């Protein structure tokens, strides 16, 4: 039984069993002691009677017959009745029995008092230890209520109450994790709002300026056309910024469940670069795909395609006209690797450790399009699927991004 797995309960049960043995032993001792007292009282009574009879000249044979005879007669009962000794005679009227009763009563009361003290002491100690355990548990639970999860309920013993403590401690851990998660979400939301607010200042200021210029020269079609186009670029930048930040925020907060399944690597890559092919043609750049079209990878098609598209877009941003972007995939015994290589300007050594930071733009990238969120978003998507993303670059020769997924993931 789970009840007896509790150490304190086991100790208390052992005490009760020991008390039962003591009670039985005390009863046996008291019974034996009373038998001895009765024998002594009988011996004294017979000694007194024999002494009196001998002094009266009664023969020893008659006395012997009297004390050894086990049969009672009516004559003896009549004689005792004449002396006032019957079955209804009060105990106080029988001096020998009265003394025996007093002595027996003293022994019984003493034994009962001693056993009561022992039983009360054992029960008190058990309840006292239990009360201390409850008070300690209550104190820790009050800490949990106050949001302090540094202490833990006792789980050093087995038993029903300790199993309950373990469940309560587990519940406290869940509440702590939930509280930390909620705080993390609040921090992420606060950081996101701050980032968006900061990043929107520049395009909004530009929009305000463009609108003022158009308002001042409404009759100049060239001016209206030029700054309307610039307003379109700023609005597109704002849209990209908000969409990217919302996606990163959802990823950071764990609000996106990736639907991983077996997909053709070629299909994933094609999905990611579909909207970039036209841009590459317009900029006289080439996107080259190399790999086994039957090769598969376990990933979320939509999100992984977006991650690859962001990296390819970054490669196009830093590749001159006539350049190319190669997407090569292959499988090793443990990994499926997708490499995205360009022969563009490369990354400065002091920038390569910062390219996955939000809104980070190197000095060389200030004149290129983008808001500095494509690579951080790609990293969040890949790592959210237990993948790994890395980068190598040589200044003036190009950059290689490598995305790796476990073959059994």
UniProtKB/TrEMBL annotation:
One Pfam family from the record = HisKA
Q: What class of enzyme is it?
A: transferase
Listed InterPro entries? BphY/WalK/GraS-like, HATPase_C_sf, HATPase_dom, His_kinase_dom, HisK_dim/P_dom, HisK_dim/P_sf, Sig_transdc_His_kin-like_C
Enzyme Commission designation: 2.7.13.3
GO molecular function per UniProt: kinase activity
- Which keywords does UniProt give here? Kinase, Membrane, Phosphoprotein, Transferase, Transmembrane, Transmembrane helix, Two-component regulatory system
Amino-acid biosynthesis: is it a keyword of this entry? no
Instruction: From the record, give the transmembrane residue ranges.
Output: 12-31, 108-128
Instruction: Show the PROSITE patterns listed in the entry.
Output: HIS_KIN
**Stored SMART domains:** HATPase_c, HisKA
The compartments listed are: Membrane
Record-annotated Histidine kinase domain positions: 195-409
Q: Classify the source by domain of life.
A: Bacteria
Q: Catalysed reaction per UniProt?
A: ATP + protein L-histidine = ADP + protein N-phospho-L-histidine
Q: Which residues form a coiled coil?
A: none
Q: What is the name attached to this protein's record?
A: histidine kinase
């Amino acid at each position: 039984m789970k009840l007896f797995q509790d150490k304190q309960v086991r100790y208390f049960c052992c005490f009760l069993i020991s008390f039962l043995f003591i009670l039985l032993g005390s009863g046996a001792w008291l019974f034996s002691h009373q038998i001895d007292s009765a024998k002594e009282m009988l011996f004294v009574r017979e000694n007194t009677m024999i002494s009196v009879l001998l002094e009266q000249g009664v023969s020893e044979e008659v006395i012997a017959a009297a004390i050894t005879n086990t049969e009672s007669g009516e004559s003896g009962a009549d004689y005792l009745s004449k002396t006032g000794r019957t079955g209804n005679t009060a105990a106080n009227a029988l001096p020998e029995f009265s003394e025996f009763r007093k002595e027996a009563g003293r022994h019984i009361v003493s034994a009962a008092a001693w056993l009561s003290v022992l039983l009360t002491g054992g029960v008190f100690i058990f309840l006292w230890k239990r009360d201390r355990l409850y008070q300690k548990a209550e104190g820790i639970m009050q800490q949990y209520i106050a949001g302090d999860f540094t202490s833990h309920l006792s789980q050093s013993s087995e038993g029903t109450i300790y199993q309950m403590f373990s469940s309560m401690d587990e519940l406290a851990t869940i509440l702590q994790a939930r509280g930390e998660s909620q705080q993390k979400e609040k921090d992420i939301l606060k950081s996101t709002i701050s980032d968006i607010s900061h990043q929107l200042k520049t395009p909004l200021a530009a929009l305000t300026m463009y609108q003022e210029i158009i308002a001042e020269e409404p009759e100049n079609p060239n001016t209206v056309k030029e700054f309307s186009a610039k307003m379109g670029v700023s609005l597109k930048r704002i849209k990209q910024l908000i969409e990217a930040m919302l996606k990163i925020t959802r990823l950071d907060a764990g609000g996106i469940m990736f639907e991983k399944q077996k997909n053709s690597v070629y299909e994933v890559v094609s999905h990611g670069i579909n909207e970039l092919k036209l841009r590459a043609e317009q900029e006289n750049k080439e996107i080259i795909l190399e790999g086994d079209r039957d090769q598969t990878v376990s990933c979320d098609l939509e999100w992984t395609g977006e991650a690859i598209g962001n990296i390819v877009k970054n490669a196009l941003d830093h590749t001159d006209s006539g350049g190319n972007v190669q997407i090569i995939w292959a499988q090793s015994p443990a990994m499926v690797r997708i490499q995205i290589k360009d022969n563009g300007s490369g990354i400065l050594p002091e920038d390569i450790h910062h390219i996955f930071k939000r809104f980070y733009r190197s000095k060389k990238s200030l004149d290129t399009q983008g808001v500095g969120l494509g690579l951080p978003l790609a990293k969040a998507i890949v790592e959210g699927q237990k993948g790994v993303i890395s980068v190598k670059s040589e200044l003036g020769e190009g950059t290689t991004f490598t995305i790796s997924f476990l073959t059994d993931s």
